[in-house]
């Protein structure tokens, strides 16, 4: 059943990110703009290493934030989710034959080594307690790049833990997450034999600020200024990284 959220697997962060309530975090013009920034970053990094037509695995991608734009860009998309409910928001793609969906263990991916031309994942590392295992598995099944995002403490997000209560009060459906240092993530991928070959920082201001402003033109203007003067490149977050086999 598509509303079945039960799962026998040890890591199920994608079940929550794949539901309709989580999608409300990106509703409205500002939310759509934030997703567009993410989409642009992922497609830019992917285009440099995998051409349209390539087989791409979207790990925990039931939220549809990547499955839809990847399919639109011509990639052959497969999504793996921790429960049948993770199919709900990409059902249109699956039913149309533009994307495949499978229930499986995201930290023990049910695929042979190097099964896909590329592997992508967003909204996963930060909520996954066994993130080094997740990284290892994504690297194992990719014969090309692995592209994923993570929030970094080397940004204005350094104050985020202190503001968590206020953030939860405003956003309602936020949850605890892990902030990374760039070196942590690099070391996680290095342990799997991968090196960083590209990086795209999404925002200089914390995303909760843009949600509070509720004004896409103002947010776009502020972020455009920050990117133009180099602040986003230096201290932007979340970061989308591309890693490739050494």
Please explain how this structure is put together.
The structure is a single chain. The chain has 246 residues and is α/β, with parallel strands linked by helices. It has one domain (13-245): 3-Layer(aba) Sandwich (Rossmann fold). 38% of the residues lie in helices and 18% in strands. The protein is built from eleven helices and seven strands. The protein has a seven-stranded mixed beta sheet, with helices on both faces. Helix 6 (131-141) links the parallel strand 4 (118-121) and strand 5. Helix 3 (28-47) runs parallel beside helix 10 (216-228).
Question: How is this structure best summarized?
Answer:
This protein has a single domain, classed as 3-Layer(aba) Sandwich (Rossmann fold). The protein contains eleven helices and seven strands. A seven-stranded mixed β-sheet has the order 3-2-1-4-5-7-6, with helices on both faces.
